[in-house]
């Protein structure tokens, strides 16, 4: 069963991870090119991947109503990475982050996933303040 759909475009779906995604989650967490600059160690086993998935994205959906979402390449249905929001309790802030498998690098996904305007470089939602309001409203303070 696939997780709740968050966003759909012509080529990508963003949806909540579910435990059935442990294979791609593990693959992404063991690719040295993907994990090189993350500051966390690689996943050690599929069981470790499931433990991390339960402790972070799945727990964040329940606790905050948002989290890092699975990026699904529509033509194949393959989970190719994640993108989304992560509440950082130690900073009291919300981070927008992503990771993609190397085969999907260089296609302009991160700016699109972050909602950036190609003409100004500013977040498309910045003028409305709606995302900031939503994050403040749902994040613990």
Describe the structure concisely for a colleague.
Helix content is 33%, strand content 23%. It is α+β, with helices and mostly antiparallel strands.
Overview of the molecule:
The protein is an alpha+beta fold. The chain has five helices and five strands, in the order ββαααβββαα. The C terminus is likely disordered. The protein starts with a strand and ends with a helix. A five-stranded antiparallel beta sheet has the order 1-2-3-4-5. The chain has one domain: 3-Layer(aba) Sandwich (Aminopeptidase), CATH 3.40.630.30.
Compile the SSE list and pairings.
Layout: E1 5-8, E2 12-15, H1 22-30, H2 32-35, H3 46-64, E3 68-73, E4 78-88, E5 93-100, H4 109-113, H5 130-138
Antiparallel strand pairs: 1-2, 2-3, 3-4, 4-5
Helix pairs in contact: 1-3
Note the main attributes of this structure.
141 residues; alpha+beta
What order do the SSEs take from the amino end to the carboxyl end, as H and E? EEHHHEEEHH
Task: Provide the structure class.
Answer: alpha+beta
CATH architecture: 3-Layer(aba) Sandwich
> Helicity, in percent?
25-40%
Largest sheet: 5 strands, antiparallel
Q: Name the beta content range.
A: 15-25%
What's the CATH C level? Alpha Beta
How are the strands ordered across the major sheet? 1-2-3-4-5
């Amino acid at each position: 069963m696939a997780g709740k759909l968050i966003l759909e475009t012509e080529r990508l779906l963003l949806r909540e991870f579910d435990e059935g995604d442990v294979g791609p989650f593990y693959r992404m967490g063991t690719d040295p090119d993907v994990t090189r600059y993350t500051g966390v160690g690689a996943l050690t086993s599929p069981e470790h991947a499931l433990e991390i998935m339960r402790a972070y994205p799945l727990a964040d959906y329940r606790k905050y109503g948002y989290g890092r979402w699975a990026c699904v390449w529509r033509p194949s249905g393959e989970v190719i990475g994640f993108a989304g929001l992560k509440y950082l309790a130690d900073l009291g802030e919300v981070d927008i982050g992503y990771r993609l498998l190397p085969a999907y690098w260089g296609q302009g996904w991160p700016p699109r996933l972050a909602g950036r305007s190609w003409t100004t470089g500013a977040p498309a939602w910045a003028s409305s303040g709606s995302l900031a309001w939503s994050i403040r409203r749902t994040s613990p303070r």
